[in-house]
Write a structure and sequence with these properties.
- By secondary structure, the protein is an alpha+beta fold.
- It is 24% helix and 18% strand.
- It has two domains: 60 residues, no CATH class; 124 residues, Jelly Rolls (Sandwich).
- The strands form two sheets. Strands 1, 2, 3, 4, 6, 7 and 10 form a seven-stranded antiparallel beta sheet that branches.
- Helix 3 packs across helix 5.
């Protein structure tokens, strides 16, 4: 049975606006020497303008099929085991080139974090995205357990815009839950602790009527959390502020 590697050129042809040509685009948007070399490498295996990968020789096709499987493993690995992150209290903080991986040549990281696990990421000065897969004991977050994330009064995430906490399943999608709540943030009606701090509860079932305003449903299986900090303040950007660990409370 024939296996199609990629869509044929005619299947998704780009129609440029009148008066625009690929030659003029290439002049207007300069292509770096490194990218020129990459395009040359792609052309040798049938990938590029005016080429059809299905017309390459059999050995090249077999190699592309192997590369497809290996590439998928590499991208999935980049989405689950982030490279060059700083880990503190079970939270992973992305490097300074997060959001501009293509400019620094970190193409696998871009494919994993900004394409497979997400859609797009901003530069750190616009938004930070700390990720937690593990609790304070180093165990993977799982809906069979209950967790608390507590901020002291003076430890709330420092932002100039807004912040939020969101739970995702290991398929990178939001988690269905009976109250249709998918995030908590500074615009949520959260209840403060008596000392002015803030405790968020991440678990499958409600923590009870008195605490339900601070409850983020987690589902029944493994999951991970993302905190979004929009327009983070310097103490967050420079690593002087860090998120507290998630503690099991069951």
């Amino acid at each position: 049975m024939e296996r199609t590697l990629l869509a044929r050129p005619n299947a998704c042809r780009t129609t440029w606006p009148p008066g625009i040509s690929t030659r003029r685009i290439g002049v207007r948007f300069r292509i770096s020497d490194r990218r020129t070399r990459l395009l040359g490498m792609f052309a040798r295996i049938g990938i590029g303008p005016g080429q059809d990968v299905e017309k390459t020789d059999e050995a090249t096709r077999r190699g592309l099929i192997r590369a497809l499987e290996a590439g998928r493993r590499m991208v999935t690995g980049a989405a689950t085991k982030f490279a060059n992150v700083t880990e503190v209290n079970g939270w992973s903080y992305f490097p300074a080139d997060h959001g501009r991986y293509g400019l620094t040549g970190s193409f696998i990281a871009r494919a994993g974090t900004a394409s497979l696990a997400g859609i797009v990421t901003n530069d750190p000065v616009e938004a930070m995205y700390p990720v937690a897969n593990y609790d304070a004991n180093g165990e993977h977050l799982n809906g069979a357990h209950k967790y608390a994330l507590r901020f002291a009064k003076d430890e709330l995430p420092p932002v100039n815009a807004f912040r939020s906490l969101t739970a995702y399943g290991m398929d990178y999608n939001l988690i269905n839950n009976p109250i249709n709540r998918y995030s908590l943030g500074d615009r949520s009606n959260l209840k403060r602790d008596p000392d002015g701090g803030l405790t968020l509860y991440v678990q499958k079932d409600s923590p009870g009527p008195d605490l339900e305003s601070n409850w983020l449903p987690s589902g029944e299986r493994d999951f991970y959390l993302i905190v979004r900090l929009y327009l983070p303040k310097p103490e967050a950007l420079q690593g002087r502020w860090r998120l507290p660990a998630l503690h099991r409370v069951d």
